[in-house]
Amino acid sequence: SDIIFQHHIFKLFILLALLGLGAAQHNPHTKHGRTAIVHLFEWRWADIAAECERFLAPNGYAGVQISPPNEHITLTSPWYPWWQRYQPTGYNLCSRSGNENELRDMITRCNNVGVNIYVDVVINHMCGAGGGEGTHSSCGGWFSASRKDFPSIPFTNMDFNDHKCRTGSGDIENYGDANQVRDCRLVGLLDLALEKDYVRGKVAGFMNKLVDMGVAGFRVDACKHMWPGDLQNTLGRLHNLNTKWFSGGSRPFIYQEVIDLGGEPITSREYFHLGRVTEFKYGAKLGTIFRKWNGEKLSYTKSWGEGWGFMPDGNALVFIDNHDNQRGHGAGGAAIATFWDPRIHKMAVAYMLAHPYGVARVMSSFRWDRNFVNGKDQNDWIGPPSHGNGATKPVPINPDQTCGDGWVCEHRWRQIKNMATFRNVVNGQPHANWWDNQSNQVAFGRGNRGFIVFNNDDWNLDVTLNTGMPGGTYCDVVSGNKDGGRCSGKQIQVGGDGHAHFKISNQDEDPFVAIHADSKL
Ligand code: QV4
Ligand code: CA
């Protein structure tokens, strides 16, 4: 019995160790009760630093996902595509967004106003096998794709997986075969041998430099294409977060890009112990629902979250669209709700920000000229707004607080910005007081701190609902702002019994209404 007892103690110890280790990497370490992350896709470091100070901190955004900061290939055919940054040529920290000093300044200034930085890291591969050789890279360093030679790190041909790959082309040909998905080239990208101690050390060294500079964590690119064991070893080498801004012993927040819509041998579950995982079903389903495709109805979302077969809440990183699927790359197809369909996009983002499931990420995009041929956008490669020489343009701010020069800045749209605040105000409160009309009109609250009502039907909504909120007059933060004691939008009267009357025309610019504790007049 002594032995059995010891065995149980041992198991308990292992469990606690796993929970301790795992839980830390699932925690985004957000500050001041802030909750939402915004992906400032392709923004320059100088603009992100300014945005942290002038907009993100004052409006309660928790953090920024930044584009890959390290040296990457530069291409002129096509002309400086956005995706060149997913082709690393080295780990020096100069990129299309700026140099190392600008990066360090941005991380420092964002941290100083309590906005965390999460770095998109590309560690599965280097550039494409057809990337040629020379100094066409963002720091000007020499490399050779054909010889698999990246001297600034250095990686040589011994540090790649080709010997393990069993496909004829050397590329991934069949996603039904987990071995080739991990050991062959993703669209021709030179696949790193992350099983090697040397490669793990170089990758961890690159990431640790960023941790030491003060970043709060990482969006890890292409995790489906890396063995969980290799990732575990590499991530296990990461330093704790910089104690200038984070409490001692804080582990970097990890969210792994794994596209799992079902139907493949590789699942999100294999990665849960390493950190959070991108839940791609979330945006694909919610886009379908708000578009009312496939007979979907908003009323079916009563059990939204795990009830829809999504991963466990504590593992999920959720979003409506990302930099891939807003332009037909990655997964989700035409159902994805992007800024190109602003009405649907705002509703879907608001639903996400109001709902308790997952850590939420808001997309902030740039515009490009789309050119559909047989349903495929021929211009899906176009990079951020830039000058003739390929240098990315700054983000100018218009007098009305919108962005200029092709930067969309969804995160600044009143409806989205105010819902980011809503999420902070209701943080930790349970999903409550659900109502639906068995069609596309639904409402739900978060404890007694917030309430939201959607009308996505083709007729008006006119109903009295229990909001669960204290009586008073509230400002609808979708149609307006609460400014001092004044409301520039609709006003909602909540009675002493928590009931309120809602009227939402299906013709409204934004057919939804949201009130929260801090929007009380
Ligand atoms: C081409 C051919 C290949 C050929 C190769 C030869 O298509 O068949 O073998 O040349 O060199 C670009 C081009 C692509 C080209 C490749 C290599 O688009 O045509 O291959 O470069 O030169 C982004 C883009 C890709 C881009 C890549 C690298 O989406 O189009 O490829 O950057 O620049 C899967 C994955 C998932 C992935 C998703 C898009 O499981 O992990 O596809 N998502 C992430 C990122 C994404 C990024 C990558 C992964 C790669 O979010 O932005 O791909 O880092 O679902
Ligand atoms: Ca791989």
Automatic annotation (TrEMBL):
Keywords: Calcium, Carbohydrate metabolism, Chloride, Disulfide bond, Glycosidase, Hydrolase, Metal-binding, Signal
Family per record: Belongs to the glycosyl hydrolase 13 family.
Xref: SMART domains: Aamy, Aamy_C
Catalysed reactions, semicolon-separated: Endohydrolysis of (1->4)-alpha-D-glucosidic linkages in polysaccharides containing three or more (1->4)-alpha-linked D-glucose units
Protein name: Alpha-amylase
A Pfam family reported for this protein in Swiss-Prot or TrEMBL: Alpha-amylase
GO biological process, one term: carbohydrate metabolic process
Gene3D superfamilies linked to this entry: Glycosidases, Golgi alpha-mannosidase II
Listed InterPro entries: A-amylase/branching_C (IPR006048), A-amylase_C (IPR031319), Alpha_amylase (IPR006046), GH (IPR017853), GH13_cat_dom (IPR006047), Glyco_hydro_b (IPR013780)
GO molecular function: alpha-amylase activity; metal ion binding
Cofactor(s) this protein requires: chloride; Ca(2+)
Alpha-amylase C-terminal domain span: 432-520
SUPFAM superfamilies, A to Z: (Trans)glycosidases (SSF51445), Glycosyl hydrolase domain (SSF51011)
Region spans: Disordered: 377-396
Signal sequence, start to end: 1-24
Enzyme Commission number: 3.2.1.1
Ranges for domain Glycosyl hydrolase family 13 catalytic: 35-423
Native species: Gadus morhua
Top-level enzyme category: hydrolase
Superkingdom of origin: Eukaryota
